[in-house]
Write a structure and sequence with these properties.
about 375 residues, alpha+beta, OB fold (Dihydrolipoamide Acetyltransferase, E2P), 2 domains, six-stranded mixed beta sheet, five-stranded antiparallel beta sheet, 8 helices, about 20% helix, globular, ABC_SmlMolc_Importer, cell membrane, transport
C-alpha cells in the first residue's frame, strides 16, 4: 500500500456567494492558489475582484461558502477568523505605509511577537531582498512610488506569510516605473515561495505576473487557465477582448465555413446557418502590396498609420463586392517595426488562422 502526501492548498475559496444589499457581487465562485503560485483575478471594474481579496483577508465577513488557508478553515457559515489571526500578507493600492515611521519601522511593524534579535535580522534580510538597505532610515514621503511599493511588499512578506494578497499594486505607478517594479516584485514573490492572489484590470500585467489567470465578469468566473491558454484559446468574445484590441467581423456558417466580407474561415464545428462573430487579433492581419495581377487576399484601403515604437498600427477599410452601399468593414493591423503606408494606399490583406476565433453571435461581448 502506498500513501500519497499532498501539500495543502495555500488558499482555497469554494462556493463563495456575497452580496451588498440586492447586488450579487460574487455568485458561486471557486478559486485556489497552491504554494509558490501566483494567481491573478482579471476583469473590469465592479466584477467582484477586490471583494474576493477582502474575503480572503478577512476584511469582509463571509456570507456563503468556505475559505481555507493551508488546509485550515478560516471562514464558513458566518464564522470568520479575524484578519490579524490569518497570517496573510496584504498590499493595498495605496501601500498604506505609516507616514510617521521610517522604512525599518514600517517593515518591523508585523514582527512585534518576534524576539528582538530575530526581528532585526529578518528586517535586514527583507530590506536587502527588496533593494532598500540604503534608504532604511527614510520616511515614506522621501521615497519614490516604486520604493514605497517595495516597502509595502517587504512589510507584507516579513512575517513569512504563506499567502500574499495584492490589490492593484502597480496602479499608482507611471508606465516605465511599473514595468521595472513588477519585474522586481515577481522575482521577490517567487524567491519567497509565498502563494499570491493578485487583483488587476490590466491584462498585460496579469500575463506577466501570473501562473494562472481567473477571468471574472459580474461576480462569476468566465475562464480560468494559464496566460497562454487564455490568449490562444479564449472561451468567448469577452475573454478575447480582454487581452488587447480585436477586430470583430460578422459572418454566417455555410457547411463547415464562415463567409465574411474579409474572407472565409473555418466554422470550428459551429452549426450550419448560424450567425457568428469572427474575432481577429490585429497582429493576425497581414498586409501585402496591392497588385491588379496578383489578387491573393482581400483588397483594402489604408485609413491611417501610427507608429507605436516597436510596432506600427494600421487602420484599414474593407469594401467587399457583395457589401451594401455605404457599408464598410474597418480593421486594425499591427505590424512589427516601422511600416507607415499613406492614407488612401490600396493594399491586400491575409488573415492568420491562428489569430482568429469564431463564436456564436449571441456570445456576450
Amino acid at each position: 500500500m502506498t500513501y500519497e502526501h499532498r501539500i495543502p492548498l495555500a488558499l482555497s475559496m469554494t462556493c463563495i456567494r456575497h452580496a451588498y444589499g440586492t447586488v450579487q457581487a460574487i455568485d458561486g465562485l471557486d478559486v485556489s492558489v497552491s504554494p509558490g503560485e501566483i494567481v491573478c483575478l482579471l476583469g473590469p471594474s465592479g466584477c467582484g475582484k477586490t471583494t474576493i481579496l477582502r474575503l480572503a483577508a478577512g476584511l469582509e465577513d463571509i456570507q456563503e461558502g468556505e475559505v481555507s488557508l493551508n488546509g485550515q478553515v478560516v471562514a464558513v457559515n458566518g464564522n470568520n477568523l479575524p484578519p490579524e489571526k490569518r497570517g496573510v500578507g496584504l498590499v493595498f493600492q495605496d501601500y498604506a505605509l505609516f507616514p510617521h515611521l521610517d522604512v525599518i519601522d514600517n517593515v518591523t511593524f508585523g514582527l512585534i511577537d518576534w524576539r528582538a534579535s530575530d526581528r532585526k535580522a529578518r528586517v535586514a534580510y527583507m530590506l536587502e531582498m527588496v533593494g532598500l538597505t540604503d534608504v532604511a532610515k527614510s520616511f515614506p514621503h522621501e521615497l519614490s512610488g516604486g520604493q514605497q511599493q517595495r516597502v509595502a511588499l517587504a512589510r507584507a512578506l516579513a512575517p513569512k506569510p504563506r499567502v500574499v494578497l495584492l490589490d492593484e499594486p502597480y496602479s499608482g505607478l507611471d508606465a516605465r516605473l511599473r514595468d521595472r517594479v513588477r519585474s522586481e516584485v515577481l522575482r521577490i514573490l517567487k524567491s519567497s515561495f509565498s502563494a499570491c492572489l493578485m487583483v488587476t484590470h490590466d491584462s498585460e500585467e496579469a500575463m506577466f505576473m501570473a501562473d494562472r489567470i481567473v477571468v471574472m465578469r459580474a461576480g462569476q468566473i468566465v475562464q480560468l487557465g494559464s496566460p497562454a491558454e487564455l490568449y490562444c484559446s479564449p472561451s468567448g468574445v469577452f475573454v478575447a477582448g480582454l487581452f488587447g484590441e480585436v477586430n470583430l467581423i460578422e459572418g454566417r456558417v455555410r457547411g463547415d465555413t464562415v463567409y465574411t466580407i474579409a474572407g472565409a474561415f473555418s466554422s470550428g464545428g459551429l452549426p450550419n446557418d448560424q450567425n457568428v462573430t469572427v474575432v481577429v487579433r490585429p497582429e493576425g492581419v497581414h498586409i501585402d502590396t496591392y497588385s491588379e495581377t496578383f489578387n491573393c487576399g482581400i483588397c483594402c484601403e489604408v485609413d491611417q498609420s501610427r507608429l507605436l515604437g516597436s510596432a506600427s498600427l494600421i487602420n484599414l477599410s474593407v469594401r467587399g463586392e457583395d457589401v451594401k452601399v455605404g457599408k464598410t468593414l474597418h480593421l486594425t493591423a499591427r505590424v512589427s517595426g516601422i511600416f507607415l503606408p499613406l492614407p488612401g494606399t490600396r493594399v491586400r490583406i491575409t488573415i492568420d488562422p491562428s489569430q482568429t476565433f469564431v463564436f456564436p453571435r449571441s456570445d456576450p461581448q
